[in-house]
Every structure is written in C-alpha cells, then in structure tokens.
C-alpha cells in the first residue's frame, strides 16, 4: 500500500546453513503478492535452487557468499536465468565479508563487482555490515564509490535510518544507485515508507 517497488527477503538461516531453510515462507510471500517483484538472498548455492524460486514466482535471486568463492557460478547463472540474478556484496571497510558476515576476506568490493560487469547481473546489493541494523546512517560515500566504479546498478543497504539517509542517497543516485533497502527503519517507525517512496519518485 505504501508503494514499495520490491520486497527484499533474506533467508538468514539459509545463509548459515548453505541451503534454503525458509523456502516455504518465501514461496508463500511470492504467491501472496504477485504484483510486486520479490528478491531473495541467503543459502542460494546452486542452479536448482534458483530455478525453484523463479518457478514459485520470485523475480530475483541474490547470490552472496558463492559469488565471492566462485565468480564463474554467477556468470553461468546469468546465462541460464538472464535478468534474474543479483549479486549481494556485504563489506566492511570496503572489503568483502562472507558466510553470514562471519568472515571478512581480502577481496575488495569494487574488485569483486568488476568481475560481473560483462555477465549480465541485474544489480548489486551493497550492504555495509558495520552499519546494518545499527540505525547509524547509511554509508553514502562507500556506496557511491562502488556505484561510480562499475556499470551495474547498485542498491544501497545497511544503516538507512531516516529521511536524511534517503535524501543523501538521492543526491548521488546519478552515480549509479538504483534504490535502497529498508528494514529496521520501517519496523521501528523511523521512516515512513510511503513518504520515502514519494520523495524518491521525484528522481525516477
């Protein structure tokens, strides 16, 4: 009702298990809201999982840990499921984190993203894990730095707390930022989703 353009779901259990754990819930959400695209991340480690989600009405599958460990996997998925693959990059101080943020790698977010520029990835969801769920404000600088370094649209995630964050992201959206994910800020009422969407729509 508030005008959200997508529903972003994360199977947190799946991220740690390395396989879908809450797939039934995801499929139920996709069936219940057929008019809004659903994107799912967490525990997607093979093509069969992607195929099952897409068949159930999910629009986008987000590949995180496996994108770091095996970039070719993402490239192959993009050929098999064109237009449906998103890469989720979780980073701390610009370095990629994996396995539900348990490990911080020696790979930079920009270097990883550049590997997918020619693959046909629909978007990069960039999460600053130092800020996610902390309500401390989005890391506009790092997000814009990534977006301006690659030719793939970037979705900002992590730390978006209030309208100041929305406005700050809109101010740099021309660098390649296509949207942002709101989570805790909606649950805690620090952002009115309808108001935020109206503001963002000015830039569409």
Automatic annotation (TrEMBL):
It catalyses: 1-(5-phospho-beta-D-ribosyl)-5-[(5-phospho-beta-D-ribosylamino)methylideneamino]imidazole-4-carboxamide = 5-[(5-phospho-1-deoxy-D-ribulos-1-ylimino)methylamino]-1-(5-phospho-beta-D-ribosyl)imidazole-4-carboxamide. It is found in: Cytoplasm. GO terms for biological process: L-histidine biosynthetic process; L-tryptophan biosynthetic process. One of its GO terms (cellular component) is cytoplasm. The keyword Acyltransferase does not apply. InterPro entries: Aldolase_TIM, His_biosynth, HisA/PriA, Isoase_HisA-like, RibuloseP-bd_barrel. One of its GO terms (molecular function) is 1-(5-phosphoribosyl)-5-[(5-phosphoribosylamino)methylideneamino]imidazole-4-carboxamide isomerase activity. Its main location: cytoplasm. Keywords: Amino-acid biosynthesis, Cytoplasm, Histidine biosynthesis, Isomerase. Pathway: Amino-acid biosynthesis; L-histidine biosynthesis; L-histidine from 5-phospho-alpha-D-ribose 1-diphosphate: step 4/9. Pfam families: His_biosynth (PF00977). Its EC number is 5.3.1.16. Belongs to the HisA/HisF family. This is 1-(5-phosphoribosyl)-5-[(5-phosphoribosylamino)methylideneamino]imidazole-4-carboxamideisomerase. It comes from Thiothrix lacustris.
């Amino acid at each position: 009702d508030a005008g959200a353009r997508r529903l972003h779901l994360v199977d947190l259990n799946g991220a740690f298990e390395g396989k879908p754990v809450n797939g039934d819930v995801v499929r139920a959400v996709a069936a219940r809201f057929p008019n809004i695209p659903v994107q799912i991340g967490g525990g997607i480690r093979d093509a069969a999982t992607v195929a099952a989600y897409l068949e159930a009405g999910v629009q986008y599958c987000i590949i995180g840990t496996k994108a770091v460990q095996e970039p070719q996997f993402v490239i192959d998925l993009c050929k098999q499921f064109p237009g449906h693959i998103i890469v989720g990059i979780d980073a701390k101080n610009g370095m990629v984190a994996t396995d539900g943020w348990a490990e911080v790698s020696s790979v930079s977010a920009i270097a990883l993203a550049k590997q997918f520029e020619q693959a046909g990835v629909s978007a990069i969801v960039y999460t600053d894990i130092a800020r996610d769920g902390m309500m401390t404000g989005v890391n506009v600088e790092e997000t814009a730095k990534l977006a301006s370094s690659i030719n793939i649209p970037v979705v900002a995630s992590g730390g978006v707390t209030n309208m100041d964050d929305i406005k700050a992201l809109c101010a740099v959206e021309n660098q390649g930022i296509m949207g942002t994910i709101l989570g805790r800020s909606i649950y805690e009422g620090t952002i009115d989703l309808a108001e935020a969407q109206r503001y963002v729509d000015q830039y569409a």
